[in-house]
Each structure stands twice: as C-alpha cells, then as structure tokens.
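fyi for ur records
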Amino acid sequence: MITRILAPVDGCEQSEAVLPYVEELSDRLSAHVTLLHVFPTTLHEQREAHMRYVETLAAQLRERLRHSGVDVVAVAMEGTPNQEIADYAARDEIGLIAAAPHSQSSGGHWNVGRTTDKVIRQTTKPVLLVAADHMSDVPRNSLMSRILVPLDGSRASREVLPHVEAVLRRDWNEGDSMVCLLHVIPAEHYAAGPIIAKRVPYEKEESDALQAQASRYLEEVAAKLRARGRSVLTHVAVGDAASMILSTSAEIGANLIAMTTHGYSGFSRLFLGSVAERVLHHSSVPLLLVKPERY
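which gave:
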C-alpha cells in the first residue's frame, strides 16, 4: 500500500510537471506527500532561498489537498540529488517516487535526465515518470485512467499489478477507464546452428500456438481483475517487444504505461530489462516502473 509519495523538485517547471499527478494520487490513496529539493553544497549560503522555494510549493499543494486530510512536507537538503533521493526514499517508508524527466527530443518523446535515470537504477521503490507536456491537458480525475500493462508470463512482470490497482480511482470503472494487458510474442526465436545459435522466424503453426497460449494466460490474469470490478482488455502482439508496447499504447490512447523493469531472461525469453529501458527512453506518456523484489 502506498502511504507516502516522494516528489523531487529542482526549481524548474519541468520538474514540477509531476505535481498534478502527485496531487491526484495523494487524493486517491490518502497518501502523505514529501516534496524534496536537493541542491549542491556549493550553494549552502543560499539554503534559505532553496527552503522557501520548496515550502512555497508544499503550501500550494497542501491547500489543494486540504479536504483530503493528508500531510504535505517540504524538505530541502544539500548533496548529490540521485543519492539523496534514493536514500530518503529508503529510510522514510516512501511507497512511490514521482518525478519528471528533464529533456525532450524533437520527435516529441522525452529522454530521461541523468538524475532520474540514476534514481531508477538505485532505488527499490516504484517510480512514476511524467513529462512536462502532460501537466495540464486533461482533467485531474482523468489522469491514469487508461493503463497499458505489458506482461511477459513471468511472476516478476506480474508484480506491477498490485500497483496498477492501487493507483486506480475508486470509481475508475465509470466512463472511458480501462486496463489493457499486453503480451508480445517475438517474431523470431533462437535455434541451434552448426556453430552458434541463430535467429529464425517462427513457423505459422508455432506462432499460432504461442498466440493462443498467450491469450489464455492474459485471460486468466484479466479474470482476477474483472472479479474485483475492473474493466480489462487483453491484447497479444507479434514483433519487437518495446515497439509493440509503444504502438499499442498509441492505439488504445493509454495515459499510463505500467510495467516491471525485469522479467524473463535468456535466449528464447523476453529480457524485460532492456525492453523497459527502451520504453523508458521513447515513451510519450507517463510511465510507472516497478522493480521486482529479486532485483
């Protein structure tokens, strides 16, 4: 259960793009919020100005959440941002880190800044990433209402599901809200060769059998969610995993992709670590990343 959200802010508007999501999640979950501002030790003499900055943001958010009865705390500290963020999350019982990447490519996709990338790698906490162009276009109660969840058949990939259910609105099943479970089957597989293994396309019969197996798997997972009143679609795609995740997200109009950072690995299995990284660097919608326990 997410009871406290940590939102790092660094003084620029891009870092504050995540705040509407923090506000909405805090309201949905009755979760307390900590706004954390980390500045370099070389700016020690300006500490009061840094504290005023984060306290002002906290006061504004506290006012908007006054009806929810949650605490909004402002923290300013000196140090290395990624290390301080990860350490704070570990010692303060943080359930979710909500952050914004800092650079945007000319193609409309956003690239993860160094600090955010390092936090993702260092922390064991779920991380919600929101780009600046998602900060004001939709009503707050419509945020995170159409969620794409890639699953690769592994137990690790399913560890995202409790977090997906946690972030959904209590009345989320109304209107246009839904969850789409996606399984991607590679078009090729490794086969033994005379010297080394090589990639070969699946025969049609093999591909059909894999798709049928994947459909059954997704329906089993979907049935458990539907039993709890969720509206769930399932979709099986064939091709490159990261590309299929991104294209399916666009097709269904997803406003959140939720996935684990790792799943199956090996020659004939999907290595979700590399897939998650490609989605992370090419997604154009908010992304919820969950690191499985064994990672």
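The chain has two domains: 4-134, 144-290. thats all i got for now
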